[in-house]
Design a protein that fits this description.
Elements: H1 3-8, E1 14-21, H2 29-33, E2 38-39, H3 48-52, E3 61-67, H4 73-82, E4 86-87, H5 89-96
The structure holds zinc ion.
Length: 98
């Protein structure tokens, strides 16, 4: 059972999660680089910043949960699954731009 499973529980309403890094000096490079990365609950993926964050005390970055009934949710989740359960922000951008 992964970190996020413990954090959010197995919730069927969850479409996917996305890593959101804050801006400015409160975010280290490792967290910033992964800003926008998305993953499905099935992927059992914990964003590396949670493990590799280089800022003492952790960054102002967090995982946001997108529910199935929110805009983009279901379509995005299908795309992320096709990518193996984890998609980078660049892949998501490409998907959204058609
Ligand atoms: Zn960090």
């Amino acid at each position: 059972m992964g970190f996020l499973s413990k954090l959010f529980g197995k919730d069927n309403d969850i479409a996917y999660s996305t890593w959101h890094a804050g801006s400015g000096e409160d975010v280290c490079k490792k967290c910033k680089d992964l800003d926008g990365t998305c993953w499905t609950p099935e992927a059992d993926f914990a964003p590396p910043p949670m493990k590799d964050c280089t800022r003492a005390g952790g960054c102002n970055a967090r995982a946001l949960v997108v529910k199935m009934d929110e805009a983009w949710g279901p379509g995005d989740a299908e795309f992320i699954k096709k990518k193996g359960g984890v998609a980078t922000s660049k892949q998501m951008d490409r998907f959204h731009s058609g």
